[in-house]
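step 4 of 6: structure.
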Amino acid sequence: MIMAVRLRIWTGTFLSALLISLQVPGAYPALGADGDSVSPKDVPVKLAQAPLRAHALTAGAIEAANLLKILPKVERLAQLNQGRTNYESISDEELALKVDVMDRVMGGALEVRMAADRIDRELAWSFSGQGMLQARRQKILNNLFTANFMQGGVLGIVAGPEFLHGNRRAGIECLLLGSSIGLALSGVSFLYEKSGTRKIDGETTMLADVFHLSYPEPLHQPEIVLRFLNSVPPDAKTHKTRIDTLMDGWKLHDAQEQWLLKLAAVEPEANKYRENLRLIAKRIRMLFDTQCKIEELDADFLDLLRATDAN
Amino acid sequence: MIERSWLVVISIALGAQVTALPSFAEFGSFRDIKVTPDLNQAAEARGELRTDAQEAADLLNVRSLVERIRQAKREKSPTNTRPLQNARLLCMWRIFIASEEVRKAVAAIDFELSSSYADMDSLMTRKGMTLNTLNTYNFMQSGALGIVKQSGSFPGGNTPTVNQTLGITAFGTRTALSIVNLLVVPHLFSRKIDSPPNTLAIFFDEHHRPPDADSSYLWKFFSTPIAGSGNTLTRREILIKHWQSFARLNTTSEITLKRLSQAPDPNESMSENIRVISQRLTLLHDLKTHLEELDGSLYELHKSITVD
C-alpha cells in the first residue's frame, strides 16, 4: 500500500517536472485560466480545484504516440482518465499505462536532446572552422595592405633624395617600382578576398541523415528523430516530408552527390575535399534548420503529455 | 637600382612578419577525445548492456534495478508488476535528475558563451574601427600632400627642394602609420574582467568542490576515470590534457588560467584581450560538447530499460 502511494506521488511529480523540462512555450503557464497572474503558491490550489478531464488527442499528440508506438496505450489511458472522478480512484491499469507512456516520452525527449547535442557539437566545429578561415583571410589581407603601404612609403622616401641629387632616372625607377609592386599586391589582395580553404576533417554531420547518404553507424542512433524527419507533418497541405521541406528551403533537390558529401562532411569520402567559407556558412545554416526541426518533436511530446494528463 | 631592391624586400617582409589580427586558434583534428567508454560489440552481441549505459547505470547507482528489468524483458515475464514498475520509475527518476544536471551546466555555459561573444565583438569592433581610421588617415595625408606637391610643380610654383620635402614627408608618414597599424593596434585593445568566474574555473582548480558535489551525478561523472579504459586520469584531468594539445592551453601559467576562467583574486584587477576571449570561447564550446556526452549515455541507459 505504501509503495503504491509512493508510486503515485512519484508519477505525478515526475510528469510535472518532465513537462517543465521540455521547455516549450506554455509548458509552465504564467497566467491562470482567467488571465490573472498566478504565483507559484497559487498553482496547486488552482490545479486541485480543476475538474478531472483529459484533453482531446491533438494531431501532434497522435503523431508523437505513433512515433513512440504507443497509440493504443494512449487511447486507453485517455479513456480511463475520462471515466475517473478523482485522483484517489486511479486504477493499477491506469498507473501502469501512465508509467509506460511517461517512459516512452522520456526516451523520446532524451533522443531529441541527444540529437540536438550532436548538432551543437557539429555547429561548434563549423563555427570554429569559419572563424579560423575568416581570421586567416583577414590577417593575410591586413598584411598585404600594410606591406603595400610600407613598400610604397619606403621607395618614396628613397626616391625623394634621388630627385634632389639630380638622379632623376633613379628616382623615377623607384616610384615606378613602388607603383608596380603596389599594383601586384592589390591584385593578390583581390584574389584573397574570395579564397581561403581548409581540408574537411570534421566528423560526419547529421546532414548525412537528412540527405540520406550512407555512412558508418554513429555512436547513438536517433531512430525516432529520423522517423519524425522522414514523416509528413499532420497539418501539412502537401505530402512532403519534413526533410523534403528542408531540402526545398535549401534548394538542394538537384544538387550533385559530391556537393552533398562535402556539405555533410561524410567520412571518409569528404576528407579528400576542401571546404571554403561559403560551404561552411551553408552547413551552419542547414545544421541550425535541422536542429530546429528536430526540436519541434518536443512540442508533439508536450501535446501527448497534456492529452494523457488528467488535469 | 638593384642595390636598393633590398628595401623593397624588407618592407614586404615586415608586412608579412607581424600578425595584424590575433587569429582563432588553429585546431588539430576533430577526432578529439570522447569521455564515454568505447563500445564493446562482442559483449553487446552476448546480450550485455552497452558499455556507456553500463557506466551510466553505475553512476546513477541503479545497476541492479536495470539488470532486473532487462532480465524480465529477456524472459518475457510481465513487466507491469509493482516491483518492476517501481524499479523503472526509480531508474527514470535518476536519469531525469542527471539529465537536468547536464541542462543546468549547459545553460550556464550558454550564458558564458554569449557574454564572451559580446565582449569579443566589442573589442573586434573597436580594433577594426581604429585600423580603418588609420588607413583612411594614411590615404588622406598622401592625397593632401600629393595635391600640394603636384600643384607646386607648375611653372612659378615651389622649388624642387620644397616639393621633394613634401613628398618625403608624405611617404614617411605613410610608412610610420603602417608600422603603427602593424605593431601597435593589435595589442591596443583589452577590457577589464568584470564577470563572475565561469565554468572553466571549476575545471582548472583541482581542489574545487561544488556545494552539491555529494549529490551531483555530473560531478561524479567528471571526477572519475572512464570506465573500462586503462587510463587512471579522471575525466576532468583528461579534459585539461586535451585542451593543452587541442587548444594550446598553458596550464603552467596561473595568470592565463585566471584570465580564461575570469577568476582574478579579490581586489586584483585583470584585463582580457581578443586572444584570451577567443581561446575561452574554444574551451567553453569544447567543454559543453563533452558535458553533453552524458546525455548520450543516459539515452542508451533509458533505451535498455524501456519495455514494449
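step 5 of 6: annotate
 - Chain A touches chain B through 68 residues (CB under 8 Å).
 - Residues 127-197 of chain A form one domain.
step 6 of 6: archive
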